[in-house]
Amino acid sequence: MRYTLALDALPRTYACHCHDCQKWTGSAFSLQALMPETLLTATGPVVRFDLPHPSGTRVSEQRVCGRCHSRLWNTNTRRPGIAVIRAGTLDDGEGLECVAHIFVSRKQGWVILPESVPQWPEFAPPEALMAALYPAG
After folding, report:
1. Which residues does 78 contact at the CB level (< 8 Å), separation at least 6?
2. Which of 1, 34, 102, 124 could form a disulfide with 44 if both were Cys (CB 3.0 to 4.6 A apart)?
3. Which of 31, 29, 35 is nearest to 9 (CA)?
4. What is the largest CA-CA distance in the chain?
5. Other Cβ atoms closer than 10 A to 73
6. DSSP secondary structure letters along 32-77
7. SS3 helix, strand, coil % of the chain, rounded to 5?
8. Cβ neighbours of residue 100 under 8 Å, at least 6 residues apart?
9. For 54-101, what is each residue's pLDDT tens digit?
C-alpha cells in the first residue's frame, strides 16, 4: 500500500502528546500533519473504520494499511475535508519539521520540548495551530 501527497515539499508537523496518541503509536507522541484530503491519493488496500467519540457527538474515520494495519491518516466530523496524516508513515521522514506541540500536560516526563516551539497544555486554538503549520510569507 502506498499513498502520495500532492505537495512540493514535506509538510510541517505537530506532535500530539495525548494519551490516545501515545496508545495508538506505542510511543511518547504522534507526529501529524494537517492538509486538505484532496491532496492525498492512496493505492493498494486501505481499510477504513469509524471510531465514535465517547460523547457520541463526532466520529473519527481512521485509515489503516490493509496489509500491515499501520495507522496512516484520519478525518473527522469536526474538520470536514481535512486529513490528519501520521507523519511517521511518510518517506523521507528525517526531513520533517515539528513546529508545535499539543496536549503537553499529558506528555511523558522524560520528553524535553524546545522552548522556542509553540506548545499548549491541551488542544491548540485552531488559528494558532494553523499559523504554526502554515506561516504567512
Report:
1. 58
2. 1
3. 35
4. 41
5. 24
6. EEEEEGGGEEEES-EEEEEEE-TTSS-EEEEEEETTT--EEEEEET
7. 20, 40, 40
8. 14, 15, 117, 118, 119, 120, 124, 129, 132, 133
9. 777 678 899 999 999 999 999 988 888 999 999 999 998 899 999 999
CA-to-CA distance for 89 and 80, rounded, in angstroms?
Answer: 22
CA dist 49 and 27 (Å) reads: 22
Q: What is the mean pLDDT of residues 26-45?
A: 95
Single-letter residue type at 22: Q
Q: How far is CA 100 from the centre of its chain?
A: 12
Q: What are the Cα distances from residue 25, in Å, to 16, 17, 32, 64, 78?
A: 11, 11, 12, 13, 22
CA dihedral 61, 82, 92, 24 (to 10 degrees): -30
Cα–Cα–Cα angle for 68, 74, 79, rounded to 5 degrees = 180
* CA–CA separation, 15 and 69 (whole Å): 21
Reading the block at residue 76, the C-alpha cell is 473527522
SS3 call for 15: strand
pTM for this predicted structure: 0.90
Element at 130 (helix H, strand E): helix 126-133
